[in-house]
Amino acid sequence: MLLFLALPPILFTAGPADRPRIEILTQSARPLTPSFHAACDPAPSFDARRVLFSGKRTAADSWQIYELEVATGKTRQLTTGPHDSRWPAYQSRFFTLDAPTPWDQAVFVRQGNLHTCTLEGKDCHQITFHAAGEEAGPPAVAWDGRVIYPLRANGKTRLFAVNLDGTDVALFSNETADFERAAPGEDRLYFAAGGMLKSLSMLRPSLGAKAAAVNAAEPDLLPGGAVLAQTGQALVR
């Protein structure tokens, strides 16, 4: 998973697949979670001061969602329980008519469905209810507040969208996608399919995908609209 804080620095996951770690790259890489047995799935906040990630404090732990303050290195655990929680992302602020103020919350995947909770780890609840055997992948939050995520079913992965409160689950695109996080911008949504970088119109995804002439995975958007992606063991812009 490759995500940006700014340019520089860049957040990325390094290490073996069974014990990954999150590092931050400025002029040289620096681990951000040295006290964790494993950490991955970094997702920066909108102000780039905090990072959500999936972590295991010990090898025997299940994957849980944590939040890290980049400046201090302090972490806070958001989720608990025996089931793995993976692929977090910050959502836009949420409010109801009977609440005194809006609150911040995160979206993540547990047992194949999307869940949300506050950044204090409260009010955790499931917001998608897909059929048995269907599995939701890493969610990404679009500029209009929708959560866009891959859904794997019957050997095929397609992109779905849902409002931040779980309403209006709908197929976003019938294009086949890789089971990884997409990168929504104002005009285009970037995703990988078959190891190739592709994009869809955010307003009219039914027009079909445009393919970029590059083998890439795990795309993300940089300031100014450039796309950062992984190709082999390198980053491409």
Shape: globular
Beta-strand percent range: over 45%
Number of helices: 0
What structural class do helix, strand and pairing data support?
mainly beta
- What characterizes the major β-sheet? 5 strands, antiparallel
**Average pLDDT rating:** 90
Low-pLDDT sequence parts: 1-8
Radius of gyration based on Cα positions: 17 Å
Instruction: Sketch the topology as an H/E string, one letter per element.
Output: EEEEEEEEEEEEEEEEEEEEEEEE
Query: Considering DSSP H and I runs of 4 or more, what fraction of the residues is helical?
Result: under 10%
Termini separation (Å)? Answer: 15 Å
The count of strands amounts to 24
In words, what does this structure look like?
This protein has 237 residues and is mainly β. The chain is 0% helix and 48% strand. It contains no helices and 24 strands. The strands form six sheets. Strands 13, 14, 15, 16 and 17 form a five-stranded antiparallel sheet that branches. Strands 1-2-3-4 form a four-stranded antiparallel sheet, with no helix packed on it. β15 (147-153) and β16 form a beta hairpin. Residues 1-8 have low confidence and may be disordered.
